[in-house]
Amino acid sequence: MTTARRPASLLLAMAGAFLLPAIGSAAEPVRVMSFNIRYGSANDGENAWPLRREFVAETIRAFAPDLLGTQETLAFQRDELSARLPGYAVFAAGRDDGREAGEMMAIYYRTDRFEKLDGGHFWLSETPDEAGSKSWDSSLPRMCTWLKLRDKRPDGAGVFWAFNTHFDHRGPKARAESATLIRRKIAAIAGDGPALLTGDFNAAPGSKPYQNLFAATDAAGPALRDSYQIKHPDGEPGESAGTAGGFRRGDRGERRIDWIAFTPGWTIKEAAIDRTNRDGRTPSDHDPVTAVLERVEAATAED
Description:
With 303 residues, this protein is α+β, with helices and mostly antiparallel strands. The protein has helices spanning 8-17, 49-63, 75-84, 172-190, 208-214, 227-231; strands at 30-36, 67-71, 88-91, 107-110, 114-123, 143-151, 159-166, 195-200, 225-226, 258-262, 266-273, 289-295.
């Protein structure tokens, strides 16, 4: 009895099938970092920006984010970080005039992975389209920068939106209203699409801004989830949850005011407070916070 010989093309196709990823296999995760780098013109003595900018860049490179949101970033800091972060593009505008003046909520993204489709800025005020505007009891103009990105990887995150912000440090009403505005703006800009939010919120879990941002049901916009709270509901054993203070490891306290949030359409794989230090000295007066997220269908995004 003889056996019919299969065509070589069929054999190659059968062999290749074993090398292809299984249907439904995990998507390529997105590594996200939020980092208040402390404005570079501050009179910080031994912690002045020129003495720590390399430390800041090294801390970022060590985590190797795909997406980075920075706060308190002046134009020269934006450029100096860009020079130290090869492979990243940056999108930013100054909060004072919407151009170069004032602190920026810069978003850096890896150009080998993401393509910028759209982007913009709005101010945390009753006139959000007016550059430099402020409302309520805000002490300074505050803003949010956003990008619409397409992941170039076929198993990546697809099209999604990234938002980066910094709430006022003095005005409690401004912080509460800003949280509500952010949710409305995410709904207006991203619709039901997947979005990420990074920022320094100058408020701790349980506060009114936190409640407004993470309320499970709210007509203001899509439900957001706190990446760190999901992964560490009881905190990390033996570690402080504080993310801001001075430039020493022991200055942090317990207030976790830097957050990475996400809408349905993602699942959180990892979340952490980056406690990098050298002999107790930290690269900024805030710790960066990090998250690793994976794009999934909204129906399964509650992991």
